[in-house]
Amino acid sequence: MLVPPILYKNLRKNASDELGKYTLSEPFKRDLYFLRNSGFIEVNAISRIPPQGGNLSAHIRITSAGRQYIQTREVIERSIAKEKGWEDDERADDISSDTN
User: CATH for 5-84, among 1.10.10, 3.30.420, 3.30.70, 1.25.10?
Assistant: First the structure.
């Protein structure tokens, strides 16, 4: 399963408990439902998360499947970066959006 770059970035932030301040917009809610339905995060009820807050990590926990997805994707991205000669390049940090 491929997670879009912005969702992957948020999943990684959640894994390090660094989600911080948030505004729960409708598109963001859809992203949370996607991650929850994919088994990457646990949340009691997305509808009960306050519309704004100081720490979204207080409401969401990453699952072992979410952590495994991050680890696997990082290995793949490092491999692609190495293959393309990007190991020391800024592009290696955001390879998930590369379409070449």
Answer: 1.10.10
8 Å CB contact between 57 and 66: no
pLDDT digits (tens, 9 = 90+) for 16-75: 766 778 999 999 999 999 999 999 999 989 999 999 998 888 899 999 999 999 999 989
Domain boundaries, the chain: 5-84
- Residue 81 and residue 87 in contact, taking contact as beta carbons nearer than 8 Å: yes
Global pTM reads 0.74
* Distance (Å, whole) CA 100 – CA 84: 10
